[in-house]
Specification:
Blueprint lengths: L5 E4 L3 H12 L4 E5 L10 E4 L1 H10 L2 H7 L1 E3 L1 E6 L5 E6 L9 E5 H14 L3 E4 L3 E7 L2 E7 L5 E7 L1 E4 L15 E5 L2 E9 L8 E7 L3 E9 L9 E9 L3 H7 L1 H12 L1 H7 L9 E3 L2 E5 L3 E2 L2 E3 L2 H4 L8 H22 L4 H30 L4 H16 L1 H12 L33
Parallel strand pairs: 1-2, 1-12, 2-8, 5-15, 12-21
Antiparallel strand pairs: 3-7, 4-7, 5-6, 9-10, 10-11, 13-19, 14-17, 14-18, 15-16, 16-17, 20-21
């Protein structure tokens, strides 16, 4: 693996973070992205302490916390706040811990700048059509759309980080399934109304079928004086057309009936339907994440529903685990990528297995038409809020610290297995 570059496909969170860490270790890295012009776009995301610890390891924590907005708790109620459904506070894990609401474009800008500074070769506007493995390398090919292929070169290993809808993942000789979720969400980022600052990620529910949320999202690199908030509205993907036909005012009326007065000032910033972007999700399962010299990471390997807010966090933790695995191979002077990737899979297995299971379990409790699941959810969360064990399980799941239904905390969280990535030191909450 010493002479040929490592290829990474996909300039998202997992791809960029991995490229940075591997390049800093001395590996030659070439990052391929099908989009010609990388732009800081996207919705707001919630970074958990696990992701923040990874950002500290990469060296981007200060930049991101300066621009993001600290989140102290997830607080959800029934329609018009008549009954508390969810109240999970980071302080129940560590007194000074927090989540970070951040514009996805802010995270991507920080990662992209760091990748360029690390010496990563970034090639945009290139769509990889397939790969061919050989005993000593992986060959990448592109297709011009008319059946004419061209070879991009040979690489010592291939990291697939091209997201949930990866076309290359299916070429891996690994059993895998991809199942689309029937529910998605409408997202928008709006200026935070004056006097509406909050450290809560606020949600309102009507049964399992309606959910509206507001998340503090910080500022961007270019507009540091304008605080932002992310709005999200749950709906079945198949109902998007009907939602468009009903019109924007009909949707606003639904939000008002659900959330009441606190939502009004945010709704005023939504003037056209185009400000609300539809996000759909899928569940990706793989028997294993590597096939010879090829490894899948991030959403390409283990996409899940957004109910636990772990997508970007898992991608960042993947990158640190991958760098650790390849760093160990480099020290051992190992030339076998498959062995390195198997070691990576062994480290990530329990952590990802738990969050995939938890995500699948929680999704219908918040996105379905089931009345009895709503009763079950509300009853279970009520008990969990009032029992120390329940609160502990909820918050350790939230922060990304669990490796199983019975395991959490120090010695159990994967982050603690990496001496380079401690999570005990306090992260000082900063607000712009």
């Amino acid at each position: 693996m010493k002479d040929l570059p490592i290829a990474i496909v996909g300039a998202g969170t997992a791809g960029l973070a991995s490229a940075i860490l591997l390049a800093r270790q001395g590996w030659p890295v070439t990052l391929y992205e099908r989009v010609a012009d990388l732009q800081p776009v996207g919705a707001g995301i919630l970074l958990q302490p696990s992701g923040l610890a990874a950002l500290r390891h990469i060296g981007l924590l200060d930049e991101c916390t300066t621009l993001g907005a600290p989140v102290s708790r997830l607080f959800g109620t029934s329609a018009c706040a008549q009954r508390v459904i969810l109240d999970t506070r980071y302080a129940h894990w560590q007194a000074d811990s927090f989540g970070l609401g951040i514009h996805r474009g802010v995270l991507m800008t920080a990662l992209l700048s760091a990748a360029r500074a690390a010496g990563v070769t970034i090639r945009t506007g290139i769509a990889i059509s397939r790969f061919v493995q050989a005993p000593g390398h992986v060959r990448l090919l592109t297709d011009d759309g008319r059946g004419n292929e061209s070879v991009l070169g040979e690489h010592s290993a291939l990291i697939l980080a091209d997201g949930t809808r990866s076309q290359l993942r299916a070429q891996m000789q690994v059993r895998q399934t991809v199942k689309a979720y029937p529910w998605g969400a409408l997202w928008s980022i709006v200026p935070t109304p004056e006097g509406a600052d909050s450290t809560d990620l606020r949600q309102w529910y009507r049964g399992c079928s309606q959910m509206f949320g507001i998340m503090p999202t910080g500022v961007t690199h270019d507009q540091r004086q304008t605080k932002l908030s992310s709005l999200f509205w749950s709906l079945p993907v198949a109902s998007h057309g009907a939602w468009q036909q009903a019109g924007l005012e009909a949707w606003k009326d639904s939000v008002r009936k659900l959330a009441g007065e606190p939502a009004e000032a945010f709704l005023q910033a939504i003037e056209t339907p185009e400000q609300l972007m539809l996000a759909s999700y899928a569940d990706v399962r793989m028997q294993q994440w590597h096939d010879g010299r090829v490894l899948a990471i991030g959403d390409c390997a283990h996409a899940m529903s957004p109910q636990l807010g772990q997508g970007a966090n898992m991608a960042l933790v993947d990158a640190v685990a991958l760098a650790d695995a390849l760093g160990a191979c480099r020290q051992a002077q190992s030339a076998d990528p498959a062995a390195c990737f198997a070691a990576y899979g062994a480290v990530r297995g329990a952590h990802l297995r738990y969050y995939r299971q938890a995500s699948r379990l929680l999704t219908p409790l918040f996105q379905s038409h089931s009345a009895w699941l709503a009763v079950l959810r509300d009853s279970a969360l009520f008990v969990a809020r009032h029992l120390p064990m329940g609160r502990q399980h909820a918050v350790t799941t939230l922060v990304g610290a669990r490796t199983g239904w019975l395991l959490s905390g120090k010695g159990a969280a994967p982050l603690h297995a990496w001496r380079k990535l401690p999570v005990e030191p306090a992260l000082e909450a900063t607000s712009v």
